[in-house]
Structures are given as structure tokens and as C-alpha cells.
Amino acid sequence: MVNKNKVSFGPSIRRLPSYLNIIRSSQSAGVQFISGTAIASELNQEPIQVRKDLAITGIIGKPKKGYPVNELVMAIDHFLGWDLVHKAIVVGAGNLGSALSGYQEFKNHGLDIVAAFDTDPSKIGSVIHGVPIHPLDKLDEIVPRIGAEIAILTVPFPFANSSCESIVKAGISSIWNFTNSKLKVPEGITVWREDLSSGYAMLSVMMKLAQKSAVEDL
To answer: Of the candidates 80, 95, 128, which is a domain's last residue?
Structure first.
């Protein structure tokens, strides 16, 4: 299992998509070169941090000119693996699973959700955002046929590990875990846990601090 502690440049990876949005905007405007300072200014970051983050992609900027925009876009896309198409499935076709299935940005970055799986008879056989919903017990039969390599797990907490076992049995070795469960997986399985509660916790605390600061300034 791979976790964030084993990815030494994890924070840099999480910042790269924000850089890419700014760089693509400059590309659309016909800009040929962009500096680390210009990117940093847009995001209220230090230029040295931006340059260190971009360095992991292997690209080198030109003195007094910055980075060639077209090459920089390609370098980031390639480093993130977004220049390839990865077929994915959603396991758990509830509200979150449905929303993720319809998120267009995934396709723009090479993530193609081709199927969803659920145990609810009322959902099986229907289609969400163009994605067909299959019975969960057909996972190991359908996955090899459609060539999926990533599973997006959005089932309720009590069913997380049993669903994970089915995913692994079907031959998928990369799991994007949106549940609150710490999955038990064999060696060689890559798991990234997306903790939405932690994100909201950060926002909530920041709101409280901002409100407290506003009161103290009165």
C-alpha cells in the first residue's frame, strides 16, 4: 500500500494542478513564457516554492524569460500522468458516486469513468451521467472486460472493506478511497484516501479564526 508519507513530494503534487490552471490561462492568452514569480503572485505563494515544485517535473526555466508555456503544460501533464487515459469505475452509486461520475474535469485530465457498481436493485441497470450501473457482485466479471485500472470507492463506512476486497479480487490495484474507513489491502495495492471531513474541518477553523480576528479589530 502506498500512502502520503511515502511520497516525499506529496505537497508539491497537490499544488501542481493550481499552477497548471494559471499556466493554461496564459497559454490561451497567447503568452509564450511565464515566470515562477508570476505564478506565485496569482496564488500568494513564494516564488522559490513554485520553482521547487516545478522542478520535480524535470523542466528548467530560462534566465530572464521564465518557462516556455507550451513545454511547461506538457511537462506537468506528463508528470501527473494526465497525458494518458486511465479507465475507472465507481463503487457505490449514491449521491457522491453519482456526482463524481458526472465531474467533467476528470475527463479533461484523462480519467475516464466507464462503469459504476452498486447493490441497490433500484439503481442497477440505470445510467448516471452516461455511466451504466452494474451489480456489485459482477465486479470481477465486468472489470477485466472493460479494462478499468482505478476504482473510486464511495460506499458507506460499514461496507468499505468488503467492497475493497471485491475490487482487489477483480484485478484493480489503484483505489481512490472516499470513505471514512482505513482500508486493509495486500502488498502492491495503491490507496489514496480523500478525507472530505478534514477539508471541511480546516475551512471551519479558518472561519472561526477570521470571525475572532474581526471581533478583536472592532
So the answer is: 80
**Which cell is 24 given?**
493554461
Bridge partners of 87, per DSSP, are 112
What are the tens digits of pLDDT across the range 120-142?
999 999 999 999 999 999 999 99
Angle at the Cα of 174 from the Cα atoms of 155 and 200, rounded to 5 degrees: 50
Cα–Cα distance between 106 and 124 in angstroms, integer? 23
CA distance 134 to 132: 6
Q: What would you measure as the largest C-alpha separation in the chain, in angstroms?
A: 65
Instruction: Starting at the earlier edge strand, list the strands of the sheet with 131-135.
Output: 127-128, 131-135, 111-118, 86-91, 150-153, 174-177, 190-193
What pTM, to 2 d.p., does this model score? 0.86
Q: Do residue 19 and residue 107 come from a single domain?
A: no
